[in-house]
Every structure is written in C-alpha cells, then in structure tokens.
Design a protein that fits this description.
Number of domains: 2
Radius of gyration: 21 Å
CATH class of the largest domain: Alpha Beta
Bound molecules: 4'-deoxy-4'-aminopyridoxal-5'-phosphate, glutamic acid
Strand order of the largest sheet: 2-8-7-6-5-3-4
Order of helices and strands: HHEHHEHEHEHEHEEEHHHEEHEEEH
Distance between the termini: 50 Å
CATH superfamily of the largest domain: Type I PLP-dependent aspartate aminotransferase-like (Major domain)
Number of helices: 13
Strand content: 5-15%
Number of strands: 13
Helix content: 40-55%
Length: about 375
C-alpha cells in the first residue's frame, strides 16, 4: 500500500525520541530530557507581541510563497552585513530551515546522484537524500581529530556522480566548527569538481570560540552555495517553524516551485514575529549565547567526572557529544538510561556509523535539570561498572 520510498525511510531518531519523552512526561513520569535540540528559553516577548499584533491586524491569509517582502529584505540585509553573503531579496526564500534543506536537495539531486555529508552528522541529511532517490555518502570525522572534517577525506569521496556537499558548522551533534581555511579548501573542491554546497548554519550564533564563517561569503564559489539558517536556535523559536535559504536567483526560483506545491507559504503572523526578532534580536542572541556557554562550562567537567565517559569541550551549538566505554551499543544505553535512570539522551548511532560509542546530550536545558540529570547519569553509569 505504501511507496517503497516511504517504507524504507527510517524515522528521525531525534524527533521520535522527543515524542517518546513528551509522552512519558504526559503520563506523569519524571523524566529529564536532554534529547531534543531546542532552547528551553521562552521566545523574546517583543517577538511574541509582534506576532499577536499581526493576528489582531488580520494577517491570517495566504501571503507570497517566497515570504513577505519586508522579511526577505531584512534577511537579505542581515546576511549581507552579518555573514558577508551579498544578497538581495531575490536571493532569499522564507521557509522552515528543515524544509529549506529538503528543498535544496530536491532541487539538486536526480536519481543516483551522490551527496556527501558529515558522519557523524544531523539525523535528517541521509534520509533527505534518499527521498530524492539520491545516494547518501556519509564521510567520517574522528573524535581524535576533534571531530574536524578533513577536506582531503571529502575530496577522496567525490565521484562523477557527486552533486553536492552538505556542510554543518557549528555541527550537530559534535559542536565542532569548520575553520575558514577548511571552508576555503572545501570550496576549492566544489569549484574544481563542479559541485554545489549546501551550508547548514542553523547554529551560527552559538559559537563560543573564534567566529562563525559562512562559505557563501567566498567570491569564487558564491553561486554554488545554498546557505540555510533560521530563527529556531538563535531566538528560541523552534516551534515557530521559520527559517531562510540564501542562494542565487535561479535556485530560489526552483525551490519556490516546491514551496508553491507543498507549503504554499509560511503564516504571515509567524513571518512578522520573525521580522521583529531580526530587527531587535542582537541583544537576546547574546544573552542566549552566554547562557549556553555557562551551561557548557558547567556540564562538560561534570561529564568527565563520570568514570567511563570522556567529553571534549565543544566549540559551538549546544550539544555535548561524549564517548562512553561501557561496551554497550549507544541505542541500548539510551534505552537503559531512559527506563532505569529517567534521563533521555540521543544515541550517537542516530547520527551515523561514526557516532556509535557516543551519546549526545543537549545542554539547552535549565541548570537545575542539567545538575539533576547528570547526577542520575552518574549514579546509573556507576552501577554499570560495579
Ligand atoms: N539543521 C540542523 C543541524 C538541526 O539541528 C536542525 C534542527 N532544528 C535543523 C537543521 C532544522 O531546523 P528547524 O527546526 O529550524 O527547521
Ligand atoms: N535538530 C534538533 C535535534 O537534532 C531537533 C530535532 C530535529 O529536527 O532533528 O535534536
């Protein structure tokens, strides 16, 4: 009854676990969740107020499929000044970041085309490539190298069928950052081999060491780069489902066709809330970043105190991706922690084969819950060794 494509598709490890934890909480179970990558803060009040006002003003109808003009303009100005990506409103389409990645892949990939992406990497890259009948080519990074992607490993995996490389900096799940030199080298590979780059920069504002560099700012490859980012992580707006894609006009035109035949457009009041976030948001971004930095600095030493656990200090995003030495597959360990210690983590294997032996802890939780959850983990993991 169902298509092969959908039957073969694996559920999302992050969203599925997130659902399970919500269900347990609804049943009154006191589970502490470090699964879903989302800030626990409330969306800034001025953003909420702008969306409420838009509803009161009757912004309840369809709007332009590419996004309302004011927001496209604001995003173009924002990425030009902040990211160094020269953009006009014609280079912008407003859509959820996840759907932007899906749209980028749908518009580039023909059946059998190969797409390179990081391993470990975010759970949805591979499935999105499969949905386009493309061939997922996960390319490994290593804990020993600080989870830094070696451009030579990328080059070694490029074939005549390679269509695109997906980059993610800062990285989910490892928190690593791709340096400007490495981005330059990857850009050169794309230029030499005539490839596109899909740059997922959803965590761009959560960089704790050094500064974020957008590959779309490099002149020689500007036209090959599709940059995806959005409001979810920077402004605590995950539930608003809004982000953007920046690309050359023809790409925007292609993705817009997909938008027109699927979502139509994003809700106008959501877009007006997002506009308020962009206009007045720097302060809230800085507050959010500094709070995450403090949580990172609290959590990593506590994790390293646990016997059998080692964790490098992540440079960005809000994930601690730590190694475990209990000889238990990460999926099984996650299940045991959930059932026996009432703590939910995402197993490293959800992020690809290179993630086996690791667990991802989102530290975008309150300090109180972080302390309580790590105490539960410490007690449970101690029992595994005795
Ligand atoms: N890319 C990465 C690496 C992510 O972690 C997420 C999860 N939010 C997304 C894209 C999708 O972002 P959004 O929820 O804003 O669609
Ligand atoms: N991106 C977040 C995560 O990795 C939210 C869930 C998802 O979109 O995968 O947890």
């Amino acid at each position: 009854m169902f298509s092969k494509r959908i039957r073969n598709l694996q559920p999302s490890g992050t969203v599925m676990l997130g659902n399970k934890v919500k269900q347990m909480k609804n049943q009154g179970i006191d589970v502490i969740s470090f699964t879903m990558g989302e800030p626990d803060f409330q969306t800034p009040q001025h953003v909420i107020d702008a969306a409420k006002k838009a509803l009161d003003d009757g912004m309840t109808h369809y709007v332009q499929s590419t996004g309302i003009p004011q927001l496209r303009e604001a995003v173009a100005a924002h990425v030009t000044s902040k990211n160094g990506i020269e953009a006009t409103p014609d280079n912008v389409i407003i859509l959820p970041a996840k759907f932007a990645l899906y749209g980028a892949i749908q518009s580039l990939v023909d059946p059998g085309d190969e797409v390179i992406y990081p391993n470990p990497g975010w759970v949805s890259y591979g499935p999105m490539v499969e949905l386009a009948n493309g061939l997922p080519i996960p390319v490994r990074m290593r804990y020993e190298d600080g989870w830094v992607w070696d451009p030579e490993d990328i080059a070694a995996n490029v074939t005549d069928r390679t269509r695109a490389i997906i980059l993610n900096t800062p990285s989910n799940p490892t928190g690593s950052i791709i340096t400007s030199d490495a981005l330059k080298a990857i850009g050169d590979i794309a230029e030499d081999r005539d490839l596109c780059i899909i740059s997922d920069e959803i965590y761009e504002n959560l960089v704790y060491e050094g500064r974020h560099v957008s590959i779309g700012s490099f002149d020689n490859i500007r036209d090959r780069v599709i940059t995806v980012s959005g409001f979810s992580k920077s402004y605590a707006m995950t539930g608003w489902r809004i982000g953007w894609m920046i690309a050359e006009q023809e790409t925007i035109r292609m993705v817009n066709k997909l938008q027109q035949h699927s979502l139509t457009c994003l809700p106008a009041f959501v877009q007006l809330g997002a506009l308020a976030a962009l206009r007045e948001g720097e302060e809230s971004i800085n507050e959010i970043r500094e709070e995450f930095r403090a949580r990172r600095d609290m959590v990593v030493p506590m994790l390293n105190e646990i016997e059998g656990v080692s964790c490098e200090v992540p440079k960005g995003a809000f994930y601690a991706f730590f190694r475990t030495e209990f000889g238990i597959p990460s999926m099984e360990l996650a299940e045991m922690l959930l059932q026996k210690a009432l703590v939910s983590l995402t197993p490293g294997s959800a992020f690809g084969s290179a993630g086996e032996g690791y667990m991802r802890m989102s530290y975008a939780a309150s300090r109180e819950n972080l302390a309580k959850g790590i105490e539960r983990m410490t007690n449970f993991m101690g029992s595994l060794r005795s």
